[in-house]
C-alpha cells in the first residue's frame, strides 16, 4: 500500500468571512504547490451549508508533512496567510487510504471505450500479421505460438480495464516479464513495435480520438521500455505483481 496520507481540515466559516477566507487560501496554496511533500490539494465548500469547508491535502507521508513541511519556511508563509482561521477549524487529522477505491461508470474504462474484447482481438490479430512480415521484428518472434496473439489481447484488455482473464489463466505481471528475459530487445526493435501497433490500431478500427490514443500510446511506451530493460543481460526479475491497470491520465474522454 502507498505511504501517502490524506489530511482533512474541516472549517466552519461564517458567510461574511467567506470571501476573505477563500482569498487567504488562494494565496496560501502557493506554498502547498511549492512543497515537495505535497502531492495535491483541494478546498471544497459544502453545498447544503455554505459555512462548512473541507481542505484535503495528500502528503507523501505523515512524517514528511509533520517533520518536513511543518518545519520548513514554506509552512511559516502558509500559516501567515491562514492564521486568522485556525480558530475556525473543527477537525484536522491524517487519514490513510484503504484498498476500497475505484472509479464509477461516469468515466468509461479504456477497454470499454476501445470496444471491448473484440476490439483487442482484432488489434493483436492485425498486429502480429505485421510483426511476422517485418524484417526487424520477425526474428524476435520466430516460432510464435498460435495462441500468442490471443494471450496478448487478454493482457491488453486487462491492462486497459477489462476482465482479469489474463491474471486468472496466465499469471500476473511477472509472468509477462518472464517472457522477455534474455531476449536482448534493441531500441530500434522497440520503436518498430510501437509504430506497428499504432498502425494496427488504425487498421483494427480502435478509436482515434486524441484522449484515447494518448493513453494507449503512453502504455505502449511504458510497456515496451520495460520490455527492453527486462530483456537485457543485467535485468533481474521483479517481485510478483498484479497486471497494471491503465487509465485516462490527464485527459478523460472528450464528450463535446
From TrEMBL:
Statement: the UniProt record of this protein carries the keyword Zinc: no
Transcription regulation as UniProt keyword: no
A Pfam entry, by short name: Bac_globin
Domain ABM stretches: 8-79
Molecular function terms, GO-annotated: monooxygenase activity
Record key words, sorted: Heme, Iron, Metal-binding, Monooxygenase, Oxidoreductase, Transport
Name the UniProt record assigns to this protein: Antibiotic biosynthesis monooxygenase
Higher taxonomy: Bacteria, Bacillati, Actinomycetota, Actinomycetes, Kitasatosporales
Amino acid at each position: 500500500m502507498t505511504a501517502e496520507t490524506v489530511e482533512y481540515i474541516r472549517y466552519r466559516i461564517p458567510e461574511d468571512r467567506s470571501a476573505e477566507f477563500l482569498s487567504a487560501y488562494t494565496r496560501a496554496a502557493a506554498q502547498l504547490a511549492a512543497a515537495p511533500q505535497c502531492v495535491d490539494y483541494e478546498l471544497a465548500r459544502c453545498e447544503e451549508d455554505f459555512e462548512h469547508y473541507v481542505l484535503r491535502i495528500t502528503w507523501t507521508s505523515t512524517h514528511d508533512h509533520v517533520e518536513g513541511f511543518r518545519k520548513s519556511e514554506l509552512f511559516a508563509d502558509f500559516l501567515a496567510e491562514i492564521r486568522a482561521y485556525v480558530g475556525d477549524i473543527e477537525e484536522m487529522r491524517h487519514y490513510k487510504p484503504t484498498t476500497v477505491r475505484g472509479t464509477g461508470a461516469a468515466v468509461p474504462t479504456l477497454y470499454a471505450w476501445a470496444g471491448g474484447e473484440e476490439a483487442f482481438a482484432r488489434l493483436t490479430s492485425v498486429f502480429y500479421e505485421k510483426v511476422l512480415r517485418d524484417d526487424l521484428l520477425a526474428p524476435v518472434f520466430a516460432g510464435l505460438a498460435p495462441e500468442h496473439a490471443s494471450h496478448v489481447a487478454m493482457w491488453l484488455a486487462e491492462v486497459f480495464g477489462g476482465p482479469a482473464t489474463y491474471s486468472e489463466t496466465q499469471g500476473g505481471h511477472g509472468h509477462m516479464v518472464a517472457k522477455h528475459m534474455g531476449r536482448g530487445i534493441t531500441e530500434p526493435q522497440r520503436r518498430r513495435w510501437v509504430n506497428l501497433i499504432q498502425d494496427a490500431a488504425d487498421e483494427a478500427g480502435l478509436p482515434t480520438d486524441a484522449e484515447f490514443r494518448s493513453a494507449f500510446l503512453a502504455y505502449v511506451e511504458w510497456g515496451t521500455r520495460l520490455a527492453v530493460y527486462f530483456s537485457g543481460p543485467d535485468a533481474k526479475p521483479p517481485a510478483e505483481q498484479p497486471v497494471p491497470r491503465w487509465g485516462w491520465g490527464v485527459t478523460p474522454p472528450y464528450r463535446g
